[in-house]
Amino acid sequence: MATESTETWLTQEAFDRRSAELEQLSVQGRTEIAKKIEAAREEGDLKENGGYHAAKEEQGKIEARIRVLTELLRRAKVGAMAHGDGVVEPGTVVTATIQGDESVFLLGSREIVDADTDLDVYSEGSPLGAAILGHKVGDSVSYTAPNGKDITVAISKVEPYTG
Predict the structure, then answer these.
(1) pLDDT of residue 65
(2) Could you tell me the residue ranges of all domains in the chain?
(3) Is the pTM of this model over 0.85?
């Protein structure tokens, strides 16, 4: 089964921020972890060397993040922030009533928000995102959730994400 490559919408600011993170991890991060591993190796017996195992685990996390960032940037679609015309598009914060409960979330990629935000993020490729994409304030749409349940969404507010 072939995998489909999907684009991820990013602002120029988010693209630049993730590019800088990738550069830092690829150069400085790899150099620092290699030094930690070498220093731990010099301590001797690797079987019971906690510093060595911690450094190797950290190395794995750095390499995984490098792979994620490389793929994200490879398939990123860089564009301007949403227009603020009340239409749901990537980069908008949507206020909607979902099955009777009000919810506020960002439509787009987790990579465009700051790490310290409490805002939920749904991709435009998610069932919810695909259902509301292109709709506007006042629209009600329904979609079928992965569990087979029909979900109704009433869009009450759409505004550009300002981060």
Answers:
(1) 93
(2) 8-78, 92-160
(3) no
